[in-house]
């Protein structure tokens, strides 16, 4: 199915929080590429620059959330005013999304936003360095519409300082890795979050490695090791999750 074959004309919305233009623009381009959506069907909102506009869930096909340098588990006094605003806006939106079971897919930062809504434990216990890990589907994951056709185990890009250690009974675990028990989950039938980055390719993660070299994801002398870690195995399957999301919910 091509972008021209997608039904309807209602846009998807990408909520982004990357302050650096290079990684932010590349993230948007990667979401376009992997969803197969044309720019007019994927409206980007850069929340680090502007307040969240009013989003009428009846007038959009779905919500996508990109990754973020923000950590939900940081103490409030360490969060910037921008982060506190973004979190408040995200919380209000996610409350409505979950209540209505509206189409939503949060990549990496989606775990923090959706996990906070669920009051799931979010901390640094299962943080993963920037790397490629093997992610394995649960039985529910193998049956999920967004994951049909995915291998039972697939390579994915990760890099996060916090994670969910256990899910409440209101959520369905879809995928795990040996180093992080919650790699993907679903709430209701249409609300998803991934800890790994389905929107990334090798060039994209290399851009982020250089852009966020001073953000504490790796030590100053570990740049070469980190670049080698993301080349450990080819990542070829994860973008299909975004395409499946666009095809399932376009209207």
From TrEMBL:
Which PROSITE patterns would you find in this protein's record?
Answer: GATASE_TYPE_1
InterPro entries linked:
ChyE-like (IPR044992), Class_I_gatase-like (IPR029062), GATASE (IPR017926)
Residue ranges occupied by any Glutamine amidotransferase domain in the UniProt entry: 52-201
Q: Which CDD domains match?
A: GATase1_1
- What is one Pfam family matched by this protein? GATase
* Alphabetized UniProt keyword annotations: Glutamine amidotransferase
Report the protein name in the record. Glutamine amidotransferase
Species per Swiss-Prot/TrEMBL record: Microbacterium mcarthurae
């Amino acid at each position: 199915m091509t972008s021209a074959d997608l039904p309807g004309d209602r846009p998807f919305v990408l909520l982004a929080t990357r302050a650096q233009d290079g990684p932010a623009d590349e993230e948007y381009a990667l979401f376009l590429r992997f969803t197969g959506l044309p720019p007019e069907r994927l409206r980007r909102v850069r929340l680090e620059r502007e307040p969240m506009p009013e989003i009428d869930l009846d007038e959009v096909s779905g919500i996508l959330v990109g990754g973020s340098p923000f950590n939900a588990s940081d103490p409030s006094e360490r969060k910037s005013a921008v982060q506190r605003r973004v979190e408040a806006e995200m919380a209000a939106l996610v409350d409505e999304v979950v209540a209505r079971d509206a189409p939503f897919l949060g990549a990496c930062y989606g775990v923090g936003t959706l996990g906070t809504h669920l009051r799931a434990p979010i901390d640094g216990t299962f943080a993963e360095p920037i790397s490629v890990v093997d992610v394995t589907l649960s039985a529910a994951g193998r049956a999920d519409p967004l994951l049909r056709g995915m291998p039972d185990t697939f390579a994915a890009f990760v890099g996060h300082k916090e994670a969910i250690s256990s899910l409440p009974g209101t959520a369905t675990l879809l995928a795990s890795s040996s180093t992080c028990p919650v790699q993907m989950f679903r709430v209701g039938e249409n609300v998803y979050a991934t800890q790994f980055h389905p929107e990334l390719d090798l060039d994209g993660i290399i851009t982020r490695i250089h852009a966020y070299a001073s953000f504490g994801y790796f030590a100053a002398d570990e740049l070469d090791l980190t670049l080698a870690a993301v080349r450990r195995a080819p990542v070829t399957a994860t973008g299909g999750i975004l395409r499946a999301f666009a095809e399932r919910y376009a209207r």
